[in-house]
Design a protein that fits this description.
mainly beta, 4-stranded antiparallel β-sheet
């Protein structure tokens, strides 16, 4: 089952799909030909993990980001990876995220290319250096599971959906 789908805003026809069995499918021609990446080709990721989120970079057609999840097997470790070559190779951008804090979503800022936010099981984190160092976003946010994030570009607001608590809009 496809769990996440993203299209590159920088390259027409470049689409990434992530699945619940940890497979990533990539097409560069609008779906005519697909390239498959198995979970076993992702460094440091267990073979039982699945794709929670996949996002094409907003500034560079060659980059893509994935958040993986292995909590169904008792593993709550955050798995965040980035590829700089359209999925041919991957590196971790988990940085200093806490060990038992799985990641549900990742979003990139539309203006500052190294600014990212992640929705995790225990709050929202951000990085200003593309994943080397993560900082917990405070400002009155509860330490609960946030399951979705989006940046509302017109207002420059971060919109966060929590699990069972509602929506938060941060400017």
């Amino acid at each position: 089952t496809i769990t996440s789908l993203t299209e590159s805003p920088k390259q027409a026809g470049l689409i990434y799909a992530g699945t619940d069995d940890g497979i990533i499918q990539i097409t560069e021609n609008g779906g005519e030909i697909w390239r498959k990446i198995e979970i076993t080709n992702l460094p440091g990721v267990p073979k039982t993990a699945f794709i929670n989120d996949i996002k094409a970079d907003l500034h560079d057609a060659n980059k893509v980001y994935i958040a993986l999840d292995n909590h169904k097997f008792g593993d709550f470790k955050p798995y965040l990876l980035m590829s700089s070559d359209k999925g041919k190779s991957w590196q971790s951008i988990t940085g200093n995220l806490p060990d038992k804090n799985l990641v549900w979503r990742i979003v990139q800022d539309h203006e500052k290319k190294e600014l990212f936010f992640v929705a995790t099981e225990f709050g929202i984190y951000y990085t200003i250096d593309a994943g080397k160092n993560w900082i917990k976003l405070s400002g009155g946010l509860p330490t609960i599971s946030f399951r979705d994030l989006a940046i509302q570009e017109r207002e420059n607001d971060l919109v966060a959906a929590s699990f069972g608590r509602g929506f938060f809009v941060l400017d």
